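Exercise 3.2. Students should predict the tertiary structure of the chain below and write it as structure tokens, then compare their answer with the key that follows.

Predict this chain's 3D structure.
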Amino acid sequence: QVDLVESGGGSVQPGGSLRLSCAASENIFNFNVMAWFRQAPGKQRELVASINVGGRLSYADSVMGRFTISRDGAKKMVYLQMDSLKPEDTGIYYCRAQILSRSYWGQGTQVTVSS
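Answer key:
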């Protein structure tokens, strides 16, 4: 069983920043891909950003240039730095670890962007 625990969510005004953290229970380099997803009320869960075992980064068009995914293997952590936040970034943010056909999810952390 792999445990992922997200933290760092909260409420922020438009234009503000938040840094999300995902703590994994095992070596993150055991996984092919670590990623952040989000789900807004009434919408499907969507991929926000990912980093593969080789360090290749990928971002949704909607967050390109504003969000940055990173990792610290020694700490078994994955981060999502979110800058220039917009109201449409509001949602529950989930960390996912994928190895081959198996995926593991965290419980999510709420991000609310509102004036």
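Discussion points: The chain has no helices and eleven strands. The radius of gyration is 13 Å.
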